[in-house]
From TrEMBL:
Signal peptide: none annotated. One of its GO terms (molecular function) is metal ion binding. SUPFAM superfamilies: Alkaline phosphatase-like (SSF53649). It comes from Kriegella aquimaris. This is Sulfatase. Belongs to the sulfatase family.
Length: 448
């Protein structure tokens, strides 16, 4: 019995030692990488001046003002073009319109002017645009890049490129079917104006699946039709010179309210510290006092009222808040900056920089712009303006063929932010230098 007990103790000791050794040698499980959610907030048709934090006398934007306080905010941000379809396409791809080829809102072919240009719902317009969409589907977009990290991507709001899936989104509100009214957003245009439930549903889906998400929030706000809630309209009517202005001002605050609702919902879900917020406006807008149209110095123009926008990056605890009123930023920087924040490799074709990187900021000499006809055909036949923005000068170059009666204009955009004084005649040497920089940019090999 003693021998049996001794043998049992020896056996148990060996088992214990072997088990402990195996446990020590067992590979440790790698901790799963916690990836931040990404939310792009895109205003639609809003001047760079029309925010509380930018000093507007009457427009109140408390939620965006709060976002500014929590973000690295560039007040001298620009979009590369002052029209929604090409601007949005540049935001999602990170390349200039001449690279992604969504040059403007509608594509026309020779002879189409005889078909009734004002008929936006005419079948030939959708047929003409189909090749643009097919080409775009081949391009790299942020949602496609994020699939590598397991992101779910959601589209809401404005989207010109047919179905949401054409941009690489997993889910979306825009079907893009021209036979059902699809042109620039269809059901997506309801977000914000008719509530936020669909967007909330997408966020809940990602959290349920335990997936990081990319949210494209591009509501049809403050874009016309300017039909704000009556409570907001009544607030601004006594302050505005006309009802048209009051309606536009009210739309700006309505948009701000929806931004607050979105950020509050993410906070309610406990995701604020794990979410990167990026803000931009697709193009500017100056409301006419005596009708519902925009002033031609804004949308579709080469002036800052059409192209300038604040750009914000917020990641609580990771990005230090700063109000930067000097550094030039571009909406083309949004994709590379986000990729760097995630530690992802940047595709070579991207035209922007990581604008939060001080070295890249200092090495940047200029950002560029290009504007085409609303109804476009090819780059050469539709180009209206090429632009370069530097510190402190901006050069506007009208196309010699398509805008033969216009002259080159030079502005100091820091001393003269409303572009009142053309300096081109006084500084021909600066004009020549900036023209050369534009030519170098355009003569580079195509990226796509």
């Amino acid at each position: 019995m003693k021998n049996f007990t001794l043998l049992l103790l020896i056996f148990l000791t060996k088992v214990c030692l072997t088990s402990c050794k195996d446990a020590k040698q067992a590979p440790k499980e790698e901790p799963q990488e916690e990836l931040p959610n990404i939310v792009f907030i895109l205003s639609d048709d809003q001047a760079w001046t029309d925010y509380g934090f930018m000093g507007h006398e009457h427009i109140e934007t408390p939620n965006i003002d709060k976002l500014v306080q929590e973000s690295h905010t560039f007040t001298h941000g620009y979009v590369p073009t002052s029209l929604c379809a090409p601007s949005l396409a540049s935001i999602i791809t990170g390349v200039y319109p001449r690279d992604h080829m969504v040059l403007a809102n509608d594509r026309v072919l020779p002879g189409d002017d005889k078909k009734g240009k004002s008929a936006w719902k005419a079948p030939w317009r959708a047929e003409n645009y189909a090749p643009v969409i097919e080409n775009f589907k081949k391009l790299n977009t942020l949602p496609k890049m994020l699939k590598e990290k397991g992101y779910l991507s959601f589209q809401t709001g404005k989207w010109w490129i047919g179905n949401y899936a054409n941009g690489g989104f997993d889910y979306g509100m825009t079907h893009g079917d021209p036979d059902r009214g699809g042109r620039h957003g269809d059901y997506g245009l309801e977000i914000g104006r008719k509530g936020m439930d669909t967007l909330y549903g997408y966020i809940d889906l990602a959290l349920e699946k335990k997936k990081p998400f990319f949210m494209w929030y591009a509501p049809f706000l403050p874009h016309s039709p300017h039909n704000p809630p009556d409570s907001l309209l009544q607030k601004y009517l006594p302050k505005a010179p006309t009802e048209y202005i009051a309606k536009y001002w009210a739309m700006c605050e309505w948009f701000d309210q929806t931004c607050g609702e979105l950020m509050d919902y993410i906070d309610k879900k406990g995701e604020t510290e794990n979410t990167i917020f990026v803000y931009v406006c697709d193009n500017g807008w100056v409301q006419n006092e005596d009708n519902g149209n925009y002033n031609p110095i804004s949308k579709q123009s080469p002036y800052d009222y059409g192209m300038r926008t604040p750009i914000m990056f917020k990641w609580k605890g990771k990005i230090t808040p700063k109000l930067d009123d000097r550094t030039l930023a571009s909406s083309l920087d949004m994709v590379p900056t986000v990729l760097d924040l995630l530690g992802m490799k940047r595709p070579e074709e991207l035209d922007g920089i990581n604008v939060l990187n001080e070295t890249e900021q200092k090495n940047r000499e200029a950002i560029f712009g290009e504007i085409y006809n609303h109804d476009f055909y090819t780059v050469n036949e539709s180009l209206k303006y090429r632009l370069i923005m530097t510190d402190p000068y901006k050069l506007i170059v009208p196309d010699k063929t398509n805008r033969p009666n216009e002259k080159i204009q030079l502005f100091n955009i820091y001393k003269d932010p409303f572009e009142k004084e053309d300096l081109s005649d006084a500084h021909p040497e600066i004009v020549e230098k900036l023209l050369n920089q534009i030519e170098v940019s355009w003569n580079q090999e195509p990226q796509n």
